[in-house]
Amino acid sequence: MSDATLQHPRPMQVTASDIADLRQRFPDAFGNRRKQATSALLWTVAIGYLLWSFWYFEFGKLFNFNERATRMFSEFFIWGDMSGWDYAGIYQGLAETIAMAFLGTLLGSIAALLIAFFAARNTMPQPIIRHGVRRFLDLLRGIDSLIWALVFVRAVGLGPLAGVLSIFVSDAGTLSKLYSEAIENVDRKQIEGVRASGASPAKSIRFGYLPQIAPVFISLSLYSFESSVRSATILGIVGAGGIGKVLVDRFRAGFFDQVAFVVINILICVFVLDWLSGKVRAHFIGEKPH
């Protein structure tokens, strides 16, 4: 072979049959027309739906401020005479909201801990009972706490009791699902060791399961309590008592400066509860501060 051939090799000849063979073997490398058409159709539908949403929900109303809206937003930041405000009613409603959330979450956590063992695969071998309990939990969890509040307001009347019951039912359904998953993920060796010592099923749960799921139990219960405080605020709007009733009364009366004051107090309360729950979680679980 000459030096000229080595320096300038001839290009490899690619025929149409070679391209067809490569296209058949590696269709994605040449672009799949069917996937491209499907992707283009999905993008067209998504963009069309977005444009329809802007037209259907009339977002242009956000820029049409009338006199009432202007006064409302101005009173949010410019407060009037604060000496005549009902501070006792505001803080009593806030205390009711925290009590509703605490009691509802406490009852829901206790019930969830009992129900979770019937929904876990490793503690309830009977599939009929296990699936029946899980479907029951789906029912509790699938209905929003606001709907449960309307049901219990109708059943027991206006007041914080309806809020406690709605939070209890809602949290019991959610926490039971989460607790059952934690029970299914426990270390079997510890449980087998407890059983090998001759422990009864009740003692196996006490000394085998509970020590392992206690950190999850505490963490989820604290998070549920924080969430329930926010939920209890909304429940008061439908007649379940608490700060929500105070808030909606101020809205209806047009006292928007007091509405802003109530909202600020709710935010402060949520921040403090979040900080306290973090301290409690670190104490019982052993988390180190960052």
UniProtKB/TrEMBL annotation:
Location relative to the cell: Cell membrane
Residues that span the membrane, as ranges: 40-57, 98-120, 145-169, 229-248, 255-273
Principal place of residence: membrane
Domain of life assignment: Bacteria
Lineage of the organism: Bacteria, Pseudomonadati, Pseudomonadota, Alphaproteobacteria, Rhodobacterales
Domain ABC transmembrane type-1: 94-277
Methyltransferase recorded as keyword: no
Protein topology in the membrane: Multi-pass membrane protein
Identification of the protein by name: Phosphonate ABC transporter, permease protein PhnE
Keyword Iron (UniProt): no
Keywords of the record: Membrane, Transmembrane, Transmembrane helix, Transport
One Pfam family named in its UniProt record: BPD_transp_1
Family: Belongs to the binding-protein-dependent transport system permease family.
CDD domains reported for this sequence: TM_PBP2 (cd06261)
